[in-house]
Amino acid sequence: MIARSTQALFLTGLAVLLAGCVQFQTRTSLYAGMEPAPVPERPEKLSLAVEPVIYADDDTDLWFMENPDCVQGQVTTEVVAQGEQAIEVAWNRNAEGCEWSGLGIGWDGWAGKDLSQVFPYTAIQMRVRAREGKMYGLPIVLTLEDYAGGMGFAYTGNKYFERPFIDEEWQTVTVPLSSFDVEVENLDATNVKQLMLELQQSGSMYLDDIQLVFYEEEEQEPWLVEAPRPDPTALPIQLFDDAFINNNGWGLVTDNCQSIVPTSTNPSTGTTALHLQWDLAPVQCYEGMMGVSWDRWHPVDVTPIASQAAIQFDVRLPEGTSARLPVRVALEDYNRQVSQIILDARYTSAGPFTTAWQTVTIPFTELRGGGRELAAAPATVGNLSAFQDGADLRNVKQLVFFLDESGEVFIDNLRLVDVN
After folding, report:
1. What distance in Å separates the CA atoms of residue 389 and residue 7, rounded to the nearest whole number?
2. Are 401 and 291 in contact, with CB atoms under 8 Å apart?
3. Domain membership flag for residue 221
4. Across the beta sheet with 192-199, what order do the strands follow?
5. Where are the beta strands (DSSP E) in 191-326?
6. pTM of the prediction?
7. 3-state class of 175 per DSSP?
8. What are phi and psi of 410, to 5 degrees?
9. What is the pLDDT along the chain (420 residues), one digit of tens a residue?
10. Does 13 share its domain with 96?
11. Are 173 and 265 in a shared domain?
């Protein structure tokens, strides 16, 4: 086992640097840019490209930081994963003077190692166990250092563990070389000097059988696959039948201002309608609302269909209520701008609202920008300039029902249709 101070390590690296070191060479293309570096071919055996054994029973190239307040390290024959000895190490990075703590392995007699040919196909694999109890992480930064002082770093995150935590049973930890950051400190992969293990926080563990192995990351299957989204402009689109599309409706609440609930009493179609009641007389009640996104809250560009699309739904009044409905129907964009119209009988199929179901059809071209006063004024059919002061049709968020004053109504079979 070799114990080295930081100064000794620096002088060793400097001597080799002065003697000359191998570095990557960049080639300028005949064209304006740089030629991309070709991906090296995978060798048949790792040993044909580099010595794969980093540590296995031979501690000749092993060193520990000399400050015992930071690191206590040794080889042991009492607890091994395989062979005759393993590395035992305990550390406390919080101790005074421990700006860095760890150990290193020069392997292959401190020869310069060319990893460039195997970087895409190789991982550092080691056997690890806790000295006592469990470790729910492994606070080690693996560091490859070259003979010019360049470095590459990789953190041994839990995703590289064989099991979710480190306990008193040996397990394999595999860190791909492709996960190393080699750009920040300019690691020269053709002339690697050593592997260092920078120890963070505090802990104690055993290490054994550290080596380079062939590694190709398995393709990950997504654990949550989003279903394909239908074309949000392919009319007709059913927004509410017995439930809101994609469960992306909102406003179905009961409070002091409004009550919007599904009901099975006399629906227009299917088994469920919506029963809306509201009263904005209380001071805290500014506006009642209900809305729905029909593309899972993605912004929708409705400009291709704006001239022929319409909002359509069935409506009826409860017994004994007024035929007047203070309701505004609107498209809202992602900047909270709206284009809207006040609901009245001119959009129904059979005159004033009654207790019988009637179909309401509101063309997009009837929707107006501005406030409630403008919403009451009909636009010229086919004139999209009505949207200029309202919602951005390229960025529509949702369809909204604004409930003013007080009222009660049943709504069902809400949809977007083509009126051409």
Report:
1. 71
2. yes
3. no
4. 62-64, 102-105, 192-199, 140-146, 151-155, 181-185
5. 192-199, 202-214, 237-240, 249-250, 258-263, 273-279, 288-292, 309-316
6. 0.49
7. strand
8. -110, 135
9. 545 444 444 444 444 444 444 343 433 333 445 556 677 788 888 888 899 999 999 999 999 998 999 999 999 999 999 999 999 999 998 888 888 899 999 999 999 999 998 998 899 999 999 999 988 888 899 999 999 999 999 999 888 999 888 999 999 999 999 999 999 899 999 999 999 999 998 999 999 999 999 998 777 677 777 778 899 999 999 999 999 999 999 999 999 899 999 999 999 999 999 999 999 999 889 889 999 999 999 999 999 999 999 999 999 999 877 677 899 999 999 999 999 999 988 999 788 899 999 999 999 999 988 665 555 555 443 444 444 568 999 999 999 999 999 999 999 999 999 998
10. yes
11. no
Whether 225 is in a domain gets the answer no
Domain with 255 in it: what CATH number? 2.60.120.430
Contact status, residue 230 vs residue 149, Cβ threshold 8 Å: no
Range of the domain at 158: 6-214
Q: Are residues 206 and 278 in the same domain?
A: no
